[in-house]
Amino acid sequence: MKEYIVAVVGANGAVGEEMLEILEEVNFPVKKLIPLASARSAGKTVEFKGEELTIQELTSESFSENEVEIALFSAGGSVSAKYAPFAVEAGAVVIDNTSHFRMDDDVPLVVPEVNPEDIALWKKKGIIANPNCSTIQMVQALKPLDDVFGISRVDVSTYQATSGAGKSAMDELVNQMQAFFAFKLEDAEYEAFPHQIALNVIPQIDKFLDNGFTKEEMKMVNETSKIMHKQIPLAATCVRVPVLRGHSESVTITFKTEADAQKAREILSKAPNIVVEDDPQNGIYPMPFKATGKDETFVGRIRNDVFDSKILHMFIVADNLRVGAATNAVRIAQKWIELEEAE
Ligand code: NAP
Ligand code: 3JM
Question: Which of 100, 195, 238, 247 is catalytic?
Fold first, then answer.
């Protein structure tokens, strides 16, 4: 099997580190791994397959000099905007984890369990976009239910972990908790979030837009329709909670036809990379601390609405750094290789 020169941009970030682990776990055909980050991290090391690899500073030459064939970007939207074109120019396929290219008509937005066929459109710009973490875990559950019952509307509230905002945001939660136990919480600093996150929930992720929703909420609206290839009316309320890892979602789905909760459980238990955890009498339902480090999306609390037999409610949980970012990107890369090798 052919092996590839793979660059990870943002290699020592929360998502980048997870990328390295998953590439190793799935035995991805890596000929050489090139870890890239900013000048701040150049010279530091990351571990890959038991070896210490030195991080290189990302420059416009990084991809051509290293003859990169697959470039996995997760260093923020402005970094992708500036450097993804250099990777493409150097002949690499870019798999981008940021929101920068997601809604570009010439860039496929892919969740391999939902729309793997869209990967073939990568040639238009040389870029494949990875959706937002909250979108990925939700559409994995929506798609199999849509195929059977037909979705007419989705309403979702999220409970998003601090790691979604990067390593420094995780540190901020830990530091504030330590300050709380030292009776010094009022002195604790906050930078990553607009308010104290310890012992709090913040109903704001990303900036507010003129329509009253945040950018994070509109990512869920727009990305869901693009991935599902149809307009799905959707309202989201995205909330940051004092959890380190694992995004949770309370989802209400209105269908075109009657939808039975037991049938939905059966459909979801057969869906790829979904695990149904739904035995509430015995305390079994999805929770973020149990989803941490896993590559599946967990669905539970599946129940019929009391008033409308076309409505189901459920709770969906996944590891945001894996399912919501790195695992999805690596699965895209694996499918891209299948496509390349079939040509
Ligand atoms: P993080 O923990 O803060 O890590 C950021 C990484 O990017 C670090 O390796 C950092 O290196 C690097 N970086 C920052 N500025 C750079 C620059 N100018 N040039 C080169 N490298 C630079 O953040 P994260 O959680 O890993 O997230 C990174 C990005 O991934 C986010 O901004 C977001 O766009 C995306 N993301 C996507 C999802 C998703 O749902 N698909 C989920 C989470 C994050 P230094 O240490 O050298 O600064
Ligand atoms: C920038 O939990 C989160 O904050 C969402 C992850 C995230 C994203 C994203 O994937 O949409 C954090 C920071 C972005 C972005 O816009 O690329």
Answer: 247
